[in-house]
Hints:
Blueprint: H1 3-6, E1 12-13, E2 17-25, E3 29-36, E4 42-48, H2 56-71, E5 80-85, E6 91-96, E7 101-102, H3 103-110, H4 115-134, E8 147-151, E9 157-161, H5 190-194, H6 201-217, H7 227-236, H8 242-245, H9 251-260, H10 272-279, H11 290-299, H12 328-356
Antiparallel strand pairs: 1-2, 2-3, 3-4, 4-6, 5-6, 7-8, 8-9
Amino acid sequence: MSAPAAAAPGAHIAGKYRVERVLGQGGMAVVFEATHVDIGHRVAVKVLTGDASTASEVVARFRREARIAAQLPGDHVARVTDVGLTTDGAPYLVMELLVGRDLQAELGVVGRLPVDQAVDFILQACAGVAEAHGAGLVHRDLKPGNLFLTRHRDGSATIKVLDFGISKAPGPVTLTRTDANFGTPLYMSPEQIQSAKHVDARSDQHALAAILYTLVTGRPPFDAPSVSALAVVIAKESPPPARTFRPDVPAALEAAMARAMSKRPDDRFPDVYQLARALAPFGGPRAASLLPVIDHALRAPQATPAAAPAATAPATRTLRATPAAGVRRAIAVAVAIGTTLALLVLLAAALVTMLRG
């Protein structure tokens, strides 16, 4: 059954999941709260909709998200538990039903977070991202909306990393459309703006630091009136010091964020564990306990994602609709235009100086 038809409460998806309500809808998918009809377990089901459900590259990316997430077993990654086709042939995947909200929504409510809490959240995100990096994967679309704030069984706040749909794996990448491997511009690294195909794990580090900056200041590190102008700013300018907007941010924390957002990847931390070590002194009482978790996840051998998971009784993981990406080619052109304009300004200034002399 198609996603629109499945939207009615009581409708069934693939004969296994009874729809309770719509949780959210994006450009390519709709997410339902549903109940597994045999065991009564509540889950979330993401179903591709419209043209996306029949576009081969989108379907490949969707299945890829399922394979990747199913291979990452830690507490800070949203892992897929089932994948298949609806009776109408639309791909779906199943994850844990999370109670809470993403950090973008959290910022909309609180404005900005206490410094120690923000650091704790990013350290947990580092743990999830380290699992991906340990498996040779780069997320490439980290942002507040892809970090979900929920509660652990003991009641503690827990961050889950979502949406591995555009992540980069070892070996050849077969998703060839421009928007198939593009991230969210506001948190992208300079090198990802230039070419999403040639980024490494340090690009995710840039995004994590940019998210932390946003959490503690209440504003993103880079801002511009348009996507093309934003691309130029990210590629050429350093963000304002975080202490400009929040003086109680420790100077060493500000320096760590600045290093992780360096324009050159070689100037950043060697990996997310080293980033986490620099951040941990500014977190809460449990911050230091995450360091060995991150180190182990980063270095433990992981299985390379291979086949999509078979249908199983849903465990406890989550899902979320992956938003449609932007137009990387337009951004690359904008960067080139911005650089050319800057050179023309310098040449004009030099000419004026010569004429006056």
